[in-house]
Amino acid sequence: MSIATRALSLTVNGKAVGPVQVPETTMMIDFLHEYLNLTGSRLGCGIGVCHACTVILDHPDGRSEEWRTCITGAHFFAGKSVRTIEGHAQRDAQGEVAKLTPVQQAFIENFAFQCGYCTPGFVTGATVLLEQLARNPVAREDLERVIHAALDRHICRCTGYVRYYEAVRNVVLATPGLVKA
Amino acid sequence: MSNPISRRDFFKTGVVAGITIHVSLFATPAPGTLVSNGEPPPADWLDGKDAPRFRVDAIQKVTGAKTFTRDFRARDLEGWPREQSHAFLIRVPRADRIFEGVDLSTLGDDLLPDRLVLAEDLQRDGISMPHTEFYGEWFLVPKGKTPHLLGEPVALLVYKDFARFDAAKRRIQFDEGIFRFGAVTGPNPPPNYGAARYVRIEGASPDAPDENSPIRDSIIFAGFKGEQPQWPAPSRTGDAMARGMAAAMRIEQEFAAAGDDALLMRRSYTSQSIDASAMETENGNVWYDPATQSMNMMIATQSPYEVAERAAEMLAKSKFVAKKVALKCGHTVGYGTKDHAVFPLYAVVAGLYGEGRPVRLAMDRFEQFQMGLKRHAFWMKYALLVDRKTHRFRAMQGEFKCDGGGRANYSMTVGMVGATAAQSIYYLPRSDFSVATLASRAVEAGSMRGFGTLQTMSATEMLVDEAAQSLGIDAIDLRLKNVFRTGMKNTQGAVPIGALRNDEILERAKVHPLWTERAARKVKYELANPGKRYGVGFAHVQKDYGTGGEAAIATLEVDREGRVTLRHVATEIGTGTTTSQPIIAGRILGRVPDRTFYGVVDWPEMPLTASEQQFTMSQAMEDRLKQNPRWTPSFTSPMSASNSAFFLGHATRESAHALVRFGLWPAALRLWGLNPASVAPLGPRDLHAVDGKLVAGSLEPLSFARVAATAHELGLVTGVSVHTFNRWEWAEAEFDVPDAGRLRLPVDALALRYGAGASASRKSKMKEGGYHFIDRAAVFYPPTQFNNAGTRYYAPMATLVEVAVNLGTGKVDVLSHHSILDPGPPIVAQLISGQVQGGIAMGIGHALHEYLPLYEDGPGNGTWNWNRYQLPRASDVAVWNQSAESLEPKSPADLPKGMAEVTVIAVIPAIANAVHHAIGVRFYDFPITPDKIKAALS
User: Contacts of residue B163 in chain A, CB cutoff 8 Å?
Assistant: First the structure.
């Protein structure tokens, strides 16, 4: 087979992965799905529009960033650390969910999603927003605008966005330090 | 609706053509706190009473667990090999010339498929499209033929590894050079799908028998000359269709003779083709195992039975031997477009060419646009005659045309449902609505949320708004003058079931500040926002729910310890039915089921046969068939037509009521030491749960477990299975229930399980899956003539919307909206609210953003995705500025309505009406884009 491959090593949900031989052209979403069996990051459009496929890229300096996996090659993540939707909640030794994150908890309690296909992307985007606000709190009057700026790129076809946005606002307001006093 | 596909053979014998079928909702083995068939739901999902704190599937979905069919690979499926092959279809971007083959040389030797499948391979192997009148002539376009539609598959490529599959697909996906074409022939669509006409003239009064109506006389059907329906010749003495045409002519004469005392409005509207854009694309994973002669499938579908049956039919005619067809279904979403879609059958074909390995066929978004079912484009001509003095509608005509594309699917039915909905919320003394459902080379349109009614009711609501303007009266006042009230007949001549509360909704809208203050707000907004124009629009619609052939089964059992199990035919498509069905049961039983099974197809306790001709059967035939107490018109229905809360819920409700009546209530009486006479007027319906105990009146609260144990000890009923059928009315039947005598219940089949203390003779009757199937003594099906009713169940919703139009850019911003609806008593209020919010977003997309060209530039060419197809974003839907109110149920006996479709519709014409209020221009075609607005303003 003439498909060029390279060894890929990275950190996924806190665990070292690789080296794995991966074709140079393989997209990160396919690496997650077909190589790691992490299928929670969802393929929606495949061209970087809908943000159902996003993961969190954790930078060494502690910053986190939302990243689209359907338009980013797997090898871009070589040596990097990512969090996928499977890595958000705390799990017990059996891998069962032990505790949801505040974003996840807010989404389920507010009935934020219906089919749930876009949910991993919204969890990812909202989590990155919360982490950014922890570093740079927002004025209360800017909160709705900031939520739009963070999440408007995410497409949801079932719910009309309302319950997602309300949940994010609720969890931001309930988390100390995210909104300027 | 007519279902062209018979399930008769399957359910008569339990097999199709000798192949056993098994369908099950998938029980996922992936990590996480999972809710799967038969496993307990999350411990804290209930609020301690009878409402959920979150959806039963919420934790799975929010943690990225494998829930969707698309998430699964062969390695995830128990008993499947770990090896996974991958396949894709090559689809032709042209449908006006002869297809002569594919040239895959650009792939080079390395990327050629491990298996290339062409039409000749299928022909050789005996694989042909089942029900070609519904799904189309062939799977793959044969060489030498002109494709029937754009995007029609011509080849299937199967790869044993993902890397080569992925590389090959990327290389050729947009490469038109791979197709070899011959002579240009022009389009080659199938014949047009049909034409239907609904003509009604009321009798001497609205209450008197109609002079003519579809339900009294007939729907009028026609063939075609070109695109023109050839209606029967009118005759007042001819057959029912001829008489209907004579009635149509009388209505036409009334329009022609209209004088100055009436307002005559003739307007034309168009509604565009749109893509459902369900986030999960269609996909399947199919393993044909020659060693065991079994066909193992996991396919995303809203109609699992249909997929399994079609697969069995295909196999039976092919060279591939199969004794068993097993279908697993994950959760899915489709807004109707995964109901009876053709794609699953391609997944079946792909599986057959896996050489013993599972094959995954999963569309990407470009492919989904190219092949997924679309919402029909409609062209609509209306005429409305309004009495200038009374403001009453005298008559309405609608002449509709819709494009069903190159496969039939449910196009004919969509057209008919659209025609029957065109009256919207108005009573029409005389009406003539006709529809011509055309075939074309477009990607097929079919079953999709709204089902034709979105298009026609939107137009009606714009027409009425304009009529009010012409008459110089308030648009809500005009609606109130003509509102469709309880007891009135619809345009098919049928009287809807239940109270119609459209008038209450209108009265509420009329006093809402968005409406009463619209003039003042316009002035204020425009002063504050130079370059923008402000407008408020209103519309009010009512959407049918159900199909007129709704069948379901539910079984509820309680064990000795008081644990309750629910088994149901429902499956999860996002609307929350797996959350709401146990809640329904819990409110009746006093305990929410501890274990649930969905998508169940094995019903040994319901040994029924079904003709599955419920839409077309004659009365005489049904009268003959129903003599068999184990016959029913239809075994079960797909997840569609907003059928969860009311129709599927009916089976849950009736099984729960029966379990209380024949099991829990008599057990409680025993524990209280009372008999039925001594507790009167208290009865089984008074039993309910308070703080976890069963209570009735002031009697001693009893633990559920104690009551259950007593029911078991006494040999009372501890399990109930019901089959239900609705043809715009519930079928009822009489049953000889042990200890209770002959009872008439709103179900057409009943089976009971008795507790351990039952007598030996009673236990000996539990022969059907451990149940005593009680052959009914008599059955009362709604008359087959009700098939002409169109609908008798309506769910209403009105929406007020506030917009700003940017005069420079032409962009319409939705500033806020408020909706008023009558959903009946909510099962889970948050699920209804989510439907309202989501439906309105979809409606905003239809009104302002979403558009697909039908033909060569459209999705069939394979280049469409969400970069150019604009879905509504959060910033488009007034996330923070929307509200909704529901009418309070009039009585505790009210039942929930199917709300999943009506929510989309009212906002669409409301936006058009608001834009008119803003800039004084009426638009007659959707979507109302910035370009159209700029052109109108210039």
Answer: 1, 3, 5, 23, 26
Distance from CA of A95 to the nearest CA of B (A): 6
Entry pTM: 0.95
pLDDT in tens, B427-455: 999 999 999 999 999 999 999 999 999 99
pLDDT at B285 over 90: yes
Which of B33, B56, B63 is best to mutate for the A interface (most A CBs within 10 A)?
B63
How far is it, in rounded angstroms, from Cα B478 to Cα B474? 6
Average pLDDT over residues A106-135: 98
Residues forming beta bridges with residue B410, ordered by sequence position: none
Q: Mean pLDDT score of chain B, rounded to an integer?
A: 93
Contacts of B335 in chain A (CB under 8 A): 157
Q: Which residue of B has its CA nearest to A21?
A: B163
Q: Is the dihedral of CA A108, A111, A112, A116 positive or negative?
A: positive
- Secondary structure class of B462 (helix, strand, coil): helix
Which residues of chain A are within 8 Å of residue B877 when distances are taken between CB atoms? 160-162
Whole-angstrom Cα distance, residue B619 to residue A86?
56
Give A161's contacts in chain B (Cβ within 8 Å). Answer: 837, 841, 873-874, 877, 879
- Residue B498's Cβ-count burial label (10 Å; 0-12, 13-18, 19+) is middle
Nearest to A39 among B71, B576, B873 (CB): B71
Enclosing H/E stretch for B513: helix B513-516
Name residues whose C-beta falls within 8 Å of residue B67's C-beta, 6 or more positions apart in sequence.
A116, B28, B57, B60, B61, B330, B331
Helices A102-109 and A162-174: angle between axes, nearest 10 degrees: 130
Contact assignment for B574 to A23 by CB distance below 8 Å: no
Instruction: Test B279 with A52 for CB contact under 8 angstroms.
Output: yes
Q: Kindly list the strands in the beta sheet with B794-806, ordered across the sheet, starting from the edge strand earlier in the chain.
A: B532-544, B794-806, B812-821, B882-886
Residue A119 touches chain B, beta carbons under 8 Å: yes
Please tell me what DSSP assigns to residue B290. Answer: T
Spatial separation of the C-alpha atoms in residues B802 and B881, rounded to whole Å: 10
Q: In sequence order, what DSSP letters do the residues of chain A get, joined into one string? A: ----EEEEEEEETTEEEEEEEEETT-BHHHIIIIIT----SPPSSSSSSS-TT-EEEE-TTS-EEEE-SSSSBGGGGTT-EEE-GGGTSEE-TTS-EEE--HHHHHHHHTT--SS-SSHHHHHHHHHHHHHHHHHS-B-GGGHHHHHHHHHTT---SSS-SHHHHHHHHHHHHHSTTSB--
Cβ within 8 Å, pair A161-B877: yes
| Of the candidates B490, B528, B401, the residue with the CA atom closest to the CA atom of residue B200 | B490
Phi, psi torsion values for B246, nearest 5 degrees? -65, -40
SS3 B549: coil
Under 8 Å between Cβ of B911 and B844: yes
